[in-house]
Design brief:
Strand order of the largest sheet of chain B: 1-2-3
Oligomer: heterodimer
Helix content of chain A: over 70%
Order of helices and strands of chain A: HHEEEHHHH
Mean pLDDT of chain A: 90
Largest interface: A-B, 31 and 38 residues
Strand content of chain A: 5-15%
Strand content of chain B: 5-15%
Strand order of the largest sheet of chain A: 1-2-3
Structural class of chain A: mainly alpha
Shape of chain A: elongated
Distance between the termini of chain B: 31 Å
Radius of gyration of chain B: 20 Å
Largest sheet of chain A: 3 strands, antiparallel
Distance between the termini of chain A: 15 Å
Number of strands of chain B: 3
Number of helices of chain B: 8
Number of strands of chain A: 3
Mean pLDDT of chain B: 90
Chain lengths: 171, 190
């Protein structure tokens, strides 16, 4: 298919798949979900509501639920940005690089993804309030894909900037 | 550098829109295709073979010959399971030469592999409904290990596997960035 040997690609995908399974196993544990994921999701929901309050008033949060007089949105797993972060972490772990460059990539990209996710939740809530007919389309297809694309773009940029030498060796 | 960035963004936006159109416009025929391909696989693993998958617009209604006639039939929303085609199309669109033979060939192979991923996802979701959502019937027919396996499998796919699969297939089938645009044979003739 391509001039680059297939073996490093298969190896990367195998490591990526294993890393995703392990990370999923960790976040799916009830203890981790209750102690880390749900409190984190509440922070994300509060951040999104705070951002929205800069545009229009009347948005409040209760736990993971954002609500106003006209609309309510329960931020669940799959909407809190953790899924995009898992994909990113799995890709960075699977890619040959130094520990230092991995830590830099993980830190910067995870923060960027979560900030983007706050924008995503705010815009979804706003769409739910004002343009309910397109909410599902944006929820399932548009924003979900954009968040993952952002995570992949950050991974590709990181792999070019910080891990160029290991990449060259892996070819 | 800036020109490259804008070009990449423009290609990505075009690929994203193309993927969105594919996903949206082909949802109903694709649901019928998935029902046709998946039903025999589910039936192969069950005794007696009673599962019927009925495509209903972009949903799959799950029916069984042994369901009570009056009980409601569970359904599976396919749009969530197949949204990774948008990701795959966008990623192939931003490759260096998006309309080259190699890129189109890679995209077609990756799309074919994605159909297999979707079939596996439908199987996991149907089995997860059987194992977890049918009350005493589920408990009678599925043990603890099977219930956890199918439940976790379906949840894994819907949470991260759906997009992880799109990314992995792009990584596997994308042309090498330094590969020539056309087949070597064509270049030799030119």
């Amino acid at each position: 298919m391509a001039s680059r040997p297939l073996k490093p690609r298969i190896l990367f995908v195998a490591k990526f798949g294993v890393a995703m399974l392990v990370l999923y196993g960790i976040v799916a544990l009830n203890q981790v979900n209750d102690a880390v994921i749900i409190p984190f999701t509440e922070v994300v929901a509060r951040g999104a509501a705070g951002l929205l309050r800069g545009v229009e008033g009347g948005v409040d949060t209760q736990g993971t639920v954002m609500r106003s007089a006209r609309f309510a949105l329960d931020v669940r797993n799959g909407c809190n940005g953790v899924e995009a972060t898992i994909l990113l972490v799995a890709a960075i772990l699977a890619f040959p690089a130094t520990l230092r460059s991995r830590l830099i990539g993980l830190t910067i990209a995870s923060i960027a993804i979560e900030l983007l996710n706050v924008v995503r939740l705010s815009s979804l809530f706003w769409l739910g309030e004002h343009y309910r007919q397109v909410f599902d389309l944006f929820h399932v297809a548009v924003w979900q894909s954009l968040i993952i694309l952002a995570a992949i773009s950050m991974f590709v940029l990181w792999s070019l900037k910080f891990a160029e030498r290991p990449l060259a060796n892996s070819r | 550098m800036r020109k490259d960035l804008w070009l990449t963004l423009a290609k990505g936006a075009a690929g994203f829109l193309l993927g969105l159109v594919f996903w949206w416009a082909l949802a109903n025929p694709y649901a019928r295709l998935l029902a046709t391909l998946t039903q025999p696989l589910i039936r192969m693993a069950e005794r007696p073979s009673v599962t019927r998958l009925i495509a209903n617009e972009s949903e799959l209604t799950i029916d069984r010959d042994d369901f009570p006639r009056a009980s409601p039939r569970p359904a599976l929303t396919l749009m969530d399971l197949t949204a990774n085609i948008i990701l795959l199309t966008t990623l192939f669109a931003v490759n260096r030469r998006p309309v080259s033979d190699r890129n189109i060939g890679g995209f077609l192979l990756a799309s074919l592999a994605l159909v297999l991923v979707h079939i596996a996802a439908v199987i996991a979701n149907v089995e997860s409904i059987y194992a977890l959502r049918l009350g005493p019937w589920s408990e009678r027919n599925y043990g603890a290990v099977a219930r956890n396996f199918w439940g976790a499998g379906a949840h894994f796919y819907s949470l991260i596997g759906v997009f992880g699969a799109g990314f992995a297939l792009w990584w596997l089938f994308r042309p090498s960035p330094d590969a020539p645009a056309n087949e070597p044979a064509k270049r030799r003739r030119g």
